[in-house]
C-alpha cells in the first residue's frame, strides 16, 4: 500500500487549482458568474474560498482509494504591494481493498502552503506567487502518510486573456525529520492548467497533476495524467459556488498505480 501514501502526498503538494489572485482582479459579491469563475481559477486570488475536492481511484489490485481534500484558503494584505495567501489542506482518506476485511479510513498528512504574491500583475499581465510548503506527519494510518516532516517551496504563475486562464504550479518537498524507519521523501509536483470560460459561468478545464517521486527506482518515478472536464460557477441563494467534474488517465505510472482519477470539486467562494 506504499503507492497510497505517495499518492496522498502528491495530492497535497498541488491539490488543485483553486484560489489566490491579484487585487487588480479581485472579485466582489456583485460580480457576474463568469467573472467569479475566472477568479476561482487563479491559484493566488485575494478571495476567501473553501474547496472540497474528491478524488476517486481504482488501483490495479482492485482496491478503491478515495481522497477528500478540504482546503481553506485565506488571503492577507501585507502592504500596498504584497498579499500573503495561506492554504491548508486536510485530507480525509479511505481505501476499500480487494482483500477481505481490509477497509480503512482516516486522516492523511496535513499540508500548509504560503504564497507571497504581488497585488498587481506584471506589465506583461503575469500573476505569480512563491513561498514555503510544509507537510506534517498527521496520518492516522501508516498507509495514509509518509511518517515524515517534509518541507520545500512552491511557485505559481498564470495569465488571463479573454476567456482563457492559463498557468502552472510547481513545487518540491523533501523530508527532514520523522520516523527513521520510513522511506525518505523527495517529491516534485507540476500542475499545468488551462481553462476556457463561457457565458453563464460555464467553463472547460484541464489541470493534470504530474508527479515525480525522486526516491523511487528508475522507471517507477513518474505519474503523468491527461484529461479534463467541465465546470460551472453559480449561486445557491446568495452564496457563490464553483463545481467541476474532471477525469484523468495516467499514461505513465508506477507499478501498482491507478489508471484513472475521477475528480469532483465544490468550492464555496467568499468575494469581498
Explain what you see:
A hairpin with a 6-residue loop joins β6 and β7. The N and C termini lie far apart (44 Å). Helix content is 7%, strand content 58%. The strands form two sheets. The chain has a 15-stranded antiparallel β-sheet that branches. A two-stranded parallel ribbon has the order 1-2. About 4% of the residues have low confidence. It has one domain: monomeric porin ompg (Porin). It is mostly beta strands and 272 residues long.
Task: List the topology elements.
Blueprint lengths: L1 H12 L6 E2 L11 H8 L2 E3 L2 E11 L5 E7 L2 E5 L4 E15 L6 E5 L2 E9 L7 E11 L11 E14 L2 E15 L7 E12 L4 E5 L3 E4 L8 E15 L2 E14 L7 E11 L2
Parallel strand pairs: 1-2
Antiparallel strand pairs: 3-4, 3-17, 4-6, 5-6, 6-7, 6-8, 8-9, 9-10, 10-11, 11-12, 12-13, 12-14, 13-15, 14-15, 15-16, 16-17
Estimated radius of gyration: 18 Å
Q: What's the helix-strand series?
A: HEHEEEEEEEEEEEEEEEE
Average pLDDT over all residues:
86
Structural class comes to mainly beta
State the name of the first-level CATH class: Mainly Beta
Helix content: under 10%
Number of helices: 2
- CATH homologous superfamily (4th level) name: monomeric porin ompg
Strand content: over 45%
CATH topology: Porin
Low-confidence stretches: 16-25
- What is the count of β-strands? 17
Amino acid at each position: 500500500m506504499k503507492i497510497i501514501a505517495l499518492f496522498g502526498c502528491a495530492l497535497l503538494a498541488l491539490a488543485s487549482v483553486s484560489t489566490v489572485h491579484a487585487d487588480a482582479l479581485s472579485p466582489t459579491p456583485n460580480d457576474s458568474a463568469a467573472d467569479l469563475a475566472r477568479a476561482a481559477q487563479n491559484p493566488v486570488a485575494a478571495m476567501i474560498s473553501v474547496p472540497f475536492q474528491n478524488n476517486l481511484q481504482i488501483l490495479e489490485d482492485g482496491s478503491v482509494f478515495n481522497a477528500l481534500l478540504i482546503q481553506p484558503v485565506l488571503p492577507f494584505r501585507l502592504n500596498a504591494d504584497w498579499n500573503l495567501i495561506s492554504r491548508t489542506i486536510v485530507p480525509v482518506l479511505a481505501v476499500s481493498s480487494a482483500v477481505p476485511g481490509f477497509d480503512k479510513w482516516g486522516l492523511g498528512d496535513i499540508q500548509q502552503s504560503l504564497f507571497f504574491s504581488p497585488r498587481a500583475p506584471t506589465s506583461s499581465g503575469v500573476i505569480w506567487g512563491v513561498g514555503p510548503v510544509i507537510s506534517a506527519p498527521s496520518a492516522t494510518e501508516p498507509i495514509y502518510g509518509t511518517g515524515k516532516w517534509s518541507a520545500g517551496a512552491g511557485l505559481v504563475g498564470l495569465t488571463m486573456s479573454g476567456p482563457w486562464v492559463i498557468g502552472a504550479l510547481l513545487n518540491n518537498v523533501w523530508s527532514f525529520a520523522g520516523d527513521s524507519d520510513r522511506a525518505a521523501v523527495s517529491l516534485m509536483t507540476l500542475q499545468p492548467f488551462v481553462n476556457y470560460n463561457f457565458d453563464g459561468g460555464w467553463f472547460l478545464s484541464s489541470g493534470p497533476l504530474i508527479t515525480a517521486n525522486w526516491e523511487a527506482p528508475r522507471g517507477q518515478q513518474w505519474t503523468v495524467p491527461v484529461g479534463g472536464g467541465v465546470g460551472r460557477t453559480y449561486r445557491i441563494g446568495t452564496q457563490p459556488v464553483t463545481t467541476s467534474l474532471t477525469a484523468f488517465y495516467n499514461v505513465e505510472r508506477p507499478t501498482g498505480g491507478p489508471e484513472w482519477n475521477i475528480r469532483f470539486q465544490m468550492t464555496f467562494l467568499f468575494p469581498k
